[in-house]
Design goal:
- This protein has 495 residues and is an alpha/beta fold.
- The chain contains 14 helices and 22 strands.
- It has helices spanning 6-10, 60-77, 82-98, 100-111, 115-136, 173-185, 198-210, 225-234, 247-259, 282-293, 314-327, 346-361, 412-420, 435-444, and strands at 2-3, 26-28, 31-33, 40-44, 51-56, 142-144, 151-158, 161-165, 188-192, 218-220, 238-244, 264-267, 272-276, 304-310, 329-330, 365-368, 383-386, 403-409, 427-431, 449-452, 471-472, 485-492.
- The chain has a 7-stranded mixed β-sheet with strand order 16-17-18-14-13-19-20, with helices on both faces. A 6-stranded mixed β-sheet has the order 10-9-8-11-12-21, with helices on both faces. Strands 6-7-22 form a 3-stranded antiparallel β-sheet, with no helix packed on it.
- It is globular.
- The termini are far apart.
- The structure holds nicotinamide-adenine-dinucleotide.
């Protein structure tokens, strides 16, 4: 792969955030504010390791103010006509499109991914806002014939205050999805976006405020994730929980939500299998797979990771995959030539390095990559591993980084069994010209999403979510309001 050396990175003009990075603050009851005490944490540019901002950390008193504001705002927001709520959400989407450059630059600065990918994230997010705004105007109830003079109506009502927690890998998409669905449905929100990428969430919230969102309907808090989630989820004001992140944290939040009898929607990542049959243009599919694998440096929950290739075409596939990987340009996201940016934080870079070392110690063969790159910046080479022993930990642990695993299969039974041999089940993929093979894969692979012959993933109008340890509940599609509504039976009889 082509590596952008650190001295080149240094030559990239003055501080890349000059002029567009927003002031970092909490949003409580419609006002941007510092924390009640002086606690702050640094926000780091992963491409340079420079401190780009200082983030105020919410105290318990700040959280309580945010909760009270959300509770107050709910009383009027839930009664606001759906058309009026939708107008605010779509106006915010329009502002996001106008502010694409600033938001995209902020994503690249905070997360490190190439600017072109950040722009796509902003455009998609505006589409998600539009989708939720439109769909929320169709939250009709239903009339159930009773056979008597009792009239039974089912009403769909907003559940109340939502506590949401989102990660850094989709800094706009992940908070934006939850915020826009909850607000459009009539809920109010206290959200803790990732501390690594606060500026992006702040810019999205500002679009909503500028579009006319009432004070308190959306509150943004930052700080110690465990302390904040414990306080919010335990609060009687919060009625629903939405989380995207890792399995261990998802497990603990689900337990806490369960203890307080609150519904939760959990999106907990994946370990995407890809079945490549012998009836495709192998070199073309290998190139496509390699490019998809290393998007956002592999830090995508839907990222393809386990490539199961028919034994008769495996060698060609492996060679072409490595060839494409070698051409990928690793460098800072602000360099238009960069295709793979740094990892989001040193924790991720160290984790990826450890996984590769463990796999190699267990007997895996490194086809390309495998090393961290000299700093500054949390860069790691796009890495391809083969001949990995079946019991190696990397088959079970989500790499969440630029690591591809290659293996052979002999027939479809084996390929499907291998694809299903994981505790995860978020997104699975296959490439084949055979209608029969495709039908079996769509039917038999255990996954929230199975895509054949493409990597487009889930859009606004399609449900997104996992099975098994990948979590439960859905975002997107007609299911997008799952965590945000209650169904009330309103039953009456004339006197
Ligand atoms: P993590 O689970 O520690 O953090 C993910 C997000 O959850 C972060 O934004 C963090 O602030 C937040 N978080 C952490 N503890 C929390 C808590 N107690 N309550 C509420 N929110 C909390 O993950 P990480 O260290 O950033 O990454 C580790 C692994 O997490 C990755 O390897 C990957 O497997 C997984 N991950 C998955 C996704 C996804 O999209 N599903 C996103 C990020 C990370």
């Amino acid at each position: 792969m082509i590596v952008k050396r650190s001295e080149d990175a240094g030559a990239l003009s003055a501080p890349p955030h000059a002029g567009f990075y927003p002031p970092l603050a909490l949003l409580i009851d419609g006002a941007w504010t510092g924390a009640s005490d002086a606690a702050v944490r640094d926000v780091i540019d992963p491409a340079t390791e420079a401190v780009i901002g200082q983030l105020p950390c919410a105290t318990t008193a700040d959280l309580d103010r945010a909760l009270a504001a959300a509770q107050r705002a709910f009383q009027t927001w839930k009664r606001t006509p759906a058309t009026q709520r939708a107008k605010i959400v779509t106006d915010a989407a329009a502002l996001m499109r106008q502010r694409e450059d600033t938001i995209a630059r902020t994503i690249t600065l905070e997360l490190g991914k190439p600017l072109a990918e950040s722009r796509i994230e902003v455009q998609r997010l505006a589409g998600v806002f539009d989708w939720h705004a439109a769909e929320a105007q169709r939250l009709y109830g239903r009339l159930i014939p009773s056979g008597t003079d009792v009239q039974n109506t089912v009403l769909q009502e907003p559940i109340g205050v939502v506590a949401a927690f989102t990660p850094w890998n989709g800094p706009a998409a992940s908070p934006g999805r939850k915020i826009s669905a909850a607000l459009a449905a009539g809920c109010t929100v206290v959200i803790k976006p990732a501390e690594e990428t606060p500026g992006t969430a702040i810019l999205i919230a500002q679009c909503l405020l500028d579009a006319g969102l009432p004070a308190g309907a959306l509150n943004l808090v930052f700080g110690n994730p465990g302390d904040i989630s414990t306080h919010l989820v335990s609060s009687p004001i919060v009625r629903s929980v939405a989380f995207t992140g890792s399995v261990p944290i998802g497990r603990s939040l689900a337990a806490l939500a369960g203890q307080h009898l609150k519904p939760a929607v959990l999106e907990l990542g994946g370990h995407g299998p890809v079945i490549v049959n012998d009836d495709v243009d192998v070199r073309a599919v290998a190139a496509l797979c390699a490019r998809q694998k290393f998007r956002n440096a592999g830090q995508i929950c839907m990222s393809p990771t386990r490539f199961y290739v028919h034994a008769s075409v495996y060698d060609v596939f492996a060679e072409a995959f490595v060839e494409t990987t070698r051409t990928l340009k690793v460098g800072p996201g602000f360099d238009p030539a960069s295709e793979v940016g740094p990892l989001a934080n040193p924790r991720r870079r160290d984790g990826v390095e450890r996984m590769v070392q463990d796999a190699c110690a267990a007997g895996a063969r490194l086809l390309i990559g495998g090393r961290r790159l000299p700093g500054p910046g949390f860069y790691f080479e796009p890495t391809v591993l083969a001949d990995i022993p079946a019991d190696a930990d990397i088959w079970r642990t989500e790499p969440f980084g630029p690591i591809a695993l290659l293996a052979r299969f002999r027939d479809l039974d084996e390929a499907i069994a291998l694809a299903n041999h994981s505790d995860y089940g978020l997104a699975a993929f296959a490439f084949t010209r055979s209608a029969a093979a495709s039908a079996r894969i769509l039917r038999e692979v255990d996954s929230g999403i199975v895509s054949v012959n493409h990597f487009q993933g889930a859009g606004d109008s399609t449900p997104f979510g996992g099975v098994k340890d990948s979590g439960y509940g859905r975002e997107g599609g007609a299911e997008c309001f799952e965590g945000y509504l209650v169904r009330k039976l309103a039953s009456q009889r004339p006197l």
